[in-house]
Amino acid sequence: MHENLKYKIALSMLPGIGGILARNLVAYAGSVEEVFSQSIKSLMKIPGIGELNARQIKNANVLPRAEKELDYIYENGIQLHFYTDTKYPRRLKRCIDAPLLIYSKGNMNLNEERVISIVGTRNSTEYGKNVVDNLVKQFSARKYKILVVSGLAYGIDITAHRSALKYNLPTVGVIAHGLDLLYPSLHRSTAEKMLQNGGLVSDFASGTRIDPSNFIKRNRIIAGLADATIVVESAKKGGALVTADIASSYNRDVFAFPGRSGDIYSKGCNQLIRNNGATLIEDIDDLEYFMGWENTPKTDAVQSSLFIELNHDEQKIVDLLQKEGELFIDQISSQMSLPVSRISAILLNLEFKNVLNALPGQIYKLR
To answer: Domain Helix-hairpin-helix DNA-binding motif class: where (predicted)?
Structure first.
């Protein structure tokens, strides 16, 4: 197990090899360990690698660094999530540029029933802070199983984390450096509280220093972890708008709270709404409507299906959704041991029979 983890970390450290190429390497080599035993000639045959990358892979002295990183992980109670692991965030796995692995620290479920990212300007106003606090308060009041994700930055981000803590909801901060650092340091006390109910996530190894380009990479994880991204206050340019754009590219829902005309830190949200980059919401009722969240007991759905004739596979899916609540199509496929194409046809029939609802992101739940 130790050796396997070392090779997973080493793979993520290869120069010039991102998540897509790394997955190609594993697929063609057969395993993570086998990647490092391939000859240059064999590596060059793998699509996207080429001679330059092949030579860099063979010459990269990453295994000692990976061994050192593994020691740090063990010493500091850090969890490692590789893209083939069952605990790797399933929403993030659907993103084409998902990181090969992520590091986390704390007590979190990255596959929570609902995950919402809340982002915005670092120069938040009282209006923006109140919007965030009221929204998170309503998440708690309506007893949603929900994880609140943000970037631990000043302004809207830290307000989202602190509100989640206040209302006893799990919250995760995605950071742009290794877990051996904390930036900004003024948020250390909040981050420490988050470790009890949520925590910190990063795709950077320890020793990675703060660099502006890393924050863009961080934003793709904030967007990829969530069902939807909510922008609360933003200037015409800023990291929150970048995160919203990334979320849209992942076919995730993007929402924005409108602001007053002329306010500097409302211009970004108003622009998003005007350009159809985000759906306007004013409260949790709007969010529930657009996300298809319903506070109806699951027993209602079961009762309504009692009088509908279902075949064997349809009944198995109904039983599965009755037990689990909501599932991605690939989860249903895995648990049913049937190909996605077959599952898709069955789900369509169940929709026609008015037994289930199809939610954004190929998620299904009983009516």
So the answer is: 9-28, 41-60
